[in-house]
Amino acid sequence: MAFGSRTVNVEKLLTKFVQLNEPVNATNIENSPFIVAELGNNHNGSALLAKELICAAHEAGADAVKFQMRHMDQIYGADICRAKQDLGTQYTFDLLRKFQLSNDNLCEAMDYAASLGMVPLCTPWDNKSVDALEEYGVHAYKLASADLTNYPLISKIAHIKKPILVSTGMSTESEISDVVQYLNQLDVDFILMHCNSTYPAPIKDLNLRYLNKLRRLSGRPVGYSGHERGINAAITAVALGAVVIEKHLTLDKFMEGNDHRASLSPSEFTCLVEAITEVSFSLGNDDQRKLTQGELANRVVLSKSLFATKDLEAGHKVSYDDFVVRSPGSGMQPNKFFKLIGTTLLRPVKMHDPLFESHFCKDKLVPRKAYSFEGKWGIPVRFHDFSFFYDQIKLPLFEFHMSYGDLSLDIDQYMPSSYDSEVVIHAPELFENNHTLDLTALDHSYRQKSIEYLQLTIDVSRDMRKKFKKGSHNVGIVTNVGGFSETSHLSKSETERRLDNLKDSLRKLSLDGVEIWPQTMPPFPWHSGGQRFHNLFTSSQSVVEFCESEGMRVCLDVSHAELVCNFENSSFQAYLEEVLPHTAHLHIADGKGVDGEGLGIGSGSVDFEILASSYRRLAPCASWIVEVWQGHDDGGDGFWRALNELERYGF
Known about the structure:
Blueprint: H1 11-15, E1 34-40, H2 47-60, E2 64-69, H3 72-76, H4 87-98, H5 103-115, E3 119-124, H6 127-136, E4 141-143, H7 151-158, E5 164-167, H8 173-185, E6 190-195, H9 210-218, E7 222-226, H10 232-239, E8 244-248, H11 258-261, H12 266-283, H13 293-302, E9 305-308, E10 323-326, H14 337-340, E11 377-381, H15 383-392, E12 397-401, H16 411-414, E13 422-426, E14 430-431, E15 435-436, H17 444-465, E16 475-479, E17 484-485, H18 492-507, E18 514-518, E19 526-527, E20 530-531, E21 533-534, H19 540-550, E22 554-557, H20 558-568, H21 572-579, E23 583-588, E24 590-592, E25 596-599, H22 608-618, E26 623-626, H23 633-648
Parallel strand pairs: 1-2, 1-8, 2-3, 4-5, 5-6, 6-7, 7-8, 11-12, 11-26, 12-13, 13-16, 16-18, 22-23, 23-26
Antiparallel strand pairs: 9-10, 14-15, 17-21, 19-20, 24-25
């Protein structure tokens, strides 16, 4: 039964024939290598074992399974005399005859693979097999190393005009060059597969760098068909640019037949797929180097910048003793030190403050202005800079981003008056002893400590609310509630267990006078200088289900939402349609890729026209702030730039 009517994802395979080392990321994972589980005759002639192998390949994450089809009378002749053959040929002939699947069984096996979403492939060893496979409807062919010089067979396959994976084992370079020329003359898409045709192949004989030579010889993408033990060589082949990887799979390495010993077990094949995916992501590209969001954050914390050693007035000509190099690295980098000597300050700088380019170039500073936004909007602040921003521009709302140290400060010292604005609190995420807030933690004592830390935040928030004249009685507390993991995303059952813990933790809090707003999260958050995996409040469905279940509202982080949609390859507008009706407050910034969060407006891929119209229609009463990374630097330059951009979109 042909599978032409089935929906089979073959696009990933077909793109490999034109793909030359395109970078892989979470939004184009289809560019990762195409992984083939070569089953060959490892089914040992059993249709049931063939299906078990297909299941194992599917569970391991293979993109395709490959079989072999032979008509023995076509290959060896109907009147073969075994006595005249050498020992190796006799042994091979006996194994092949013993372990052949019938054509019907093989087609049923390929149907089964297609039903699981994998691409069924097959190597025809003779013309009659090509005819049978073409009647069946395969999407591509594999040419065995043994047939690289079999031009009659190659011609028959090539004239079908379907792509061919061409193994190059047992072949000389001149033979490879000749077949490349021949295939080009036949005008067919092909990929040369580097291969050492011994079973298992010695590691010293693999010569993986020859992949580069094959790429030059063919001018096309290359692949690797490995018969060596283990997975390291195949992973290395990916690092060297292989876009197709083929490895044998067996359920028992001690079964009869040469291929079993050169095959991977299901667990090994799973490890291979995981490693190839990871290596593919890590390769990236050789474009101009750009700092990741995590590096930018660490650069501020760990690197250094120029700070004023004294109060300096506008018009001052800079000298060597005016600046000192120290951390953090939020201002001008020290590599500008000598270039600044003798230049003139355009605006004053106070002692111990960092220097910015706007101190020397008027075009670098965007002044604040009177904004035309309606409703409740503002910027994030800290205790130490709140008065500075409030005195400059009395915004309708200020969101205090708290650190654990802020919870023990004297509020009156930093806010001696009452203020004609609303206040929102952003709970600390990192506490003493490297404790990251996690109300979902499986460890009871860790979760209890998180509950205690958040309760302290709630108590401080109630006191801070008294300082602000506007707003409702209940102060909103934006909270990253936890649910992250260290090495991979959690399973559905593990995530549900974490969600149950969150609900239990929230019930243990005294919430009088406050409203907890869980923040929507990105798929790959940055914690303590490194990247983690987040499992709760990412997808729109998970957010809506929680809000409806618990009767709560959220803080919709626009940048995080964009990263989730990029990661899931889903609609940003659909996300907004679902989540905005459950939104009390928004964090607005741009985002890019799957982890580029907090970017300046226009620096990422967020569609702000869609955001503005959706906001006005679905959540017009929700408050919002611009939360661009390091927006407070240089007198709030990043905030004013973001607000100027948002004003153009009609917020």
